Amino acid sequence: MEKHTCSARMNQPGPWEYKENLDTWEQRGPDKCCSFCGSLSPESFLEVLTKATLDDSIMIEPSTKRYKYYIKRIGFEGECGIKFYTWHLPDEDTEQFKEMDKMYRVAIVESKKRAEKYYGKIIENIRKDAGVIE
To answer: Is the whole model's pTM more than 0.90, yes or no?
Structure first.
């Protein structure tokens, strides 16, 4: 397994060991995830971003925390990664970062469109069931 050091291990308080190279990228369903924090790997996040620009069943949702993004896979349940922590981003001057940033911008626009459509239908159905609308 590919070893790495999760920034959360080294920078957040907790009862764990503060040592380098204790973490790995574990395969969970179709994703590689950090064994320490559960975040998608940068490679898996890039794959999800790419799919989110084309696939109606994937949405990227920012959280209220600047360092965390959620991945919503409509109609899919499992142990797959559902979050990405930005401390796993590559350095800003790398091509991988530039590609991820570009794909994120496109994916977030597409995801907003999908969310409006997806959640709008759910709200409409709830209102119909409640007898608010016919």
So the answer is: no
Q: Which two tokens stand for residue 66?
A: 């600047």
Say if CB 41 and CB 48 are below 8 A apart.
Answer: no
Domain assignment of residue 42, yes or no: yes
Answer for the pair 31, 42: CB distance below 8 angstroms, yes or no: no
Residue 43: closest CA among 124, 116, 99? 99
Question: How many domains, in total, are found in the chain?
Answer: 1
- Convert the pLDDT of each residue in 34-72 to its tens digit: 999 999 999 999 888 888 888 888 888 888 888 898 888
pLDDT value of position 123: 73
Is residue 68 domain-resident? yes
Domain that holds residue 84: 38-129
CA angle 32, 85, 50 (to 5 degrees): 60
